User: Fold Pseudouridine synthase from Pseudoalteromonas fenneropenaei.
Amino acid sequence: MLTVPMRLAKYLTHAGVCSRRQASRLIDAGDITVNGRLANHIDHVTELDEIVVLGQKVAGLAEKQLFAYHKPVGIDCKLNHADANSIIHFLPTHTRLYPIGRLDKDSRGLLLITNDGELCQRLIHPDKHVEKEYWVTVDKPLDAQFCHTMANGVPVDGQLTLPCEVSLITPNQFRIVLKQGLNRQIRKMAKYCGYKVIDLIRTRIGNISVDDLKIAESTFIELSATQQIY
Assistant:
């Protein structure tokens, strides 16, 4: 049981009720009460407090869960009920889960999904530099300069990408290990170098890999919530 007070919005996230941003909106709308009074943004709560959201009493903190998912092409990582291709329609439990980082709709491979907000923040925070490995196929043979240029950083969305590991696998395929996650970063990096990505698979996040899990496409595998990822 949580006995150390936690900020209300953070508590609701850990309880699997909503995101912190959604909690803030609900507080502003007067849709949350704490011990019978309207909640405010500076409230700190424990599981001993009675918290009601949209007329429903919050049961308490949800058990932390962590899943590995082999995302196929065509699934969108945005949690959008209106989109039939949203990952929200494929999640393995009714607990509020969300992806740690994203893969764009045209990419496939390893995705970690959790209800643990602190784990999510640790893994996506730029200061942590958690490695993410990808195998990428492009539309034409790669030249000798490609790996050097990519590894040393190229301009993407007005900033230079961080140094990374890049190596050839086949004449049309390369391996890249990133420690940052800009929007469609690899596709934009390859485009800058004159190539079009035709297949992109994420094979590893930290020390968790698709191969080690032997996880097939469209499959979820539950991991220990205390799994060390980096």
In short: The first strand starts at residue 6 and ends at 7. The radius of gyration is 20 Å.
